Backbone:
């Protein structure tokens, strides 16, 4: 009986340690270097240039960035992005985990993903008057992480 009791103690101790580590790792997030709120009409284009580097001493290239949304159907916003002459198309929803899209700025193919590489995240916040094409305005928020600068043209 004593061995069984000690196994239970060890099991609970290991579960507590695992829970503590998961909570600690989840809480360690990177704070954004910039935040930008956009209110865009349908097919209104945002032109910008983005500079990014792996660290603050590294050289950075300025690359063109465009963003627009073209369709809102079934609570999904179709967004078109062009970065470094490469087109992206994705759908954002208001639901958690489906409301954001990430673009790795140095590795656009997403092969070497890590938290310390510069990237931007685009989030869908909401939409005003979605059934009137002339008055429809989508609210987006862009966060930049790492050594990133974003300047609108």
Residues:
């Amino acid at each position: 009986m004593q061995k069984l009791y000690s196994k239970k103690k060890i099991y609970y101790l290991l579960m507590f340690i695992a829970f503590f580590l998961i909570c600690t790792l989840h809480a360690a997030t990177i704070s954004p270097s910039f935040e930008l709120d956009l209110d865009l009409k349908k097919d209104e284009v945002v032109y910008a240039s983005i500079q990014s580097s792996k660290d603050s001493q590294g050289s950075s290239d300025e690359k063109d960035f465009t963003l627009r949304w073209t369709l809102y159907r079934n609570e999904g916003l179709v967004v078109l992005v062009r970065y470094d002459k490469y087109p992206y198309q994705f759908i954002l929803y208001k639901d958690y985990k489906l409301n954001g899209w990430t673009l790795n700025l140095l590795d656009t193919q997403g092969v070497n993903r890590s938290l310390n590489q510069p990237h931007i995240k685009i989030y869908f916040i909401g939409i005003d008057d979605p059934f009137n094409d002339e008055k429809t305005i989508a609210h987006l928020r862009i966060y930049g992480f790492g050594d990133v600068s974003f300047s609108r043209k």
About this structure: The radius of gyration is 21 Å. Residues 16 and 73 are 45 Å apart (CA to CA). The first strand starts at residue 34 and ends at 41. Helices lie at 2-27.
